[in-house]
Every structure is written in C-alpha cells, then in structure tokens.
Amino acid sequence: MKVRDYPQIKCRLSPELKAQLIKASELSNRTLNSEVCYQLEKAYGLKGKNQEAT
C-alpha cells in the first residue's frame, strides 16, 4: 500500500499541543504529519528502538 493510500483523519488539537508538535517536528526534521505518526507509533509501541532516531 502506498502512503497516499493510507486513510486520513481529521483531529482537533489544543493550540498548546499543536505548538509542541510543530516544535518537535522542526527539531527532528520531520513534517508535522510524520511527527504525529512517529509520536503515536512510539506511544503504542509500534516503533522499534532502532527506529527512534529517524
């Protein structure tokens, strides 16, 4: 499955949470979408320890 075929969701965030995600995405050189996916995968244990630095 190609990334563009993944399901999309809409999500409401507090301004503080959005700002924190933006800051984290800039520090890690990820897009905001990639940062949200990274944080969710990490929270649910879907990221391996060897992938955390990417």
Explained architecture:
With 54 residues, the protein is an all-alpha fold. It has a domain at 13-46. 46% of the residues lie in helices and 0% in strands. The protein has two helices and no strands. It has helices spanning 15-27, 32-43. The longest helix has 13 residues, at 15-27. The protein is globular and about 35 Å long. The two termini are 21 Å apart.
Quick overview:
The chain is mostly helical and 54 residues long. It has two helices and no strands.
Secondary structure elements and their pairing?
Elements: H1 15-27, H2 32-43
Spell out the key features of this protein.
single chain; 54 residues; mainly alpha; 2 helices; 46% helix
Q: Low-confidence runs (pLDDT<50, min 5 residues)? A: none
- Average of per-residue pLDDT values: 89
Class by SSE composition: mainly alpha
- Which bin fits the share of residues in helices? 40-55%
- Order of helix and strand elements from N to C terminus: HH
Largest β sheet strand count, sense and barrel closure:
none
What form results from the Cα inertia axes?
globular
Radius of gyration, rounded? Answer: 12 Å
Number of DSSP strands? 0
Give the CA-CA distance, first to last residue: 21 Å
Question: What is the percentage of strand-forming residues?
Answer: under 5%
Q: Tally the helices.
A: 2
